[in-house]
Design brief:
With 147 residues, the chain is α+β, with helices and mostly antiparallel strands. The protein contains four helices and seven strands. Strand 5, helix 4 and strand 6 form a beta-alpha-beta unit. Helix 3 packs across helix 4. It starts with 5 loop residues before the first strand and ends with a strand. The relative contact order is 0.20.
């Protein structure tokens, strides 16, 4: 993943601003979206990494847990490209189309990737997502370890 990821230095933000001192990280599978909509997979500002939401896709009849695992794997790849890992995650926010159908499944998958002490987690109901096959969008905030 690291070889394929791209870190892009921002040239348009003021050099003294947080974005001017930060850097974008673009996951290879989202390079087209980055080019079209100017949305990086993550933004690293100082020691904090803000990941753009990753959508868990679960098509009709497919295993919901596997859809969440795919999203968590992609998040892990973006974290790695940003210089972090799951142990650096301090906050998750999930936006669900159906919280009742998803919460236990996502919690179980989350625990496959996050260990104690667990990151903070906010669960929010959503009316729609950018991907029509999506059931949940997951945002992550991580802090780079010192040293």
């Amino acid at each position: 993943m690291t070889e394929q990821s791209a870190s892009i230095a921002l040239e348009s933000a003021a050099p003294r601003s947080a974005r001017g001192r930060g850097r974008e990280v673009v996951h290879p599978s989202l390079a087209v979206a980055h080019q079209a909509f100017h949305v990086p997979s993550a933004f690293v500002a100082g020691s904090t990494i803000y990941l753009t939401g990753v959508i868990a896709v679960c098509r009709q009849g497919e295993d919901r847990a596997e859809g969440f695992r795919d999203a968590f794997r992609q998040i892990g790849e973006v974290l790695e490209a940003s210089g972090a890992g799951w142990d650096d995650v301090v906050k998750l926010t999930s936006f669900h189309l159906d919280i009742g159908a998803d919460i236990r499944v996502m919690a179980a998958v989350k625990d496959e990737f996050c260990r104690k002490p667990y990151p903070a987690w906010s669960v929010i109901g959503a009316g729609s997502l950018a991907n029509p096959d999506g059931v949940c969008e997951i945002e992550v905030v991580a802090c780079l370890s010192a040293g």
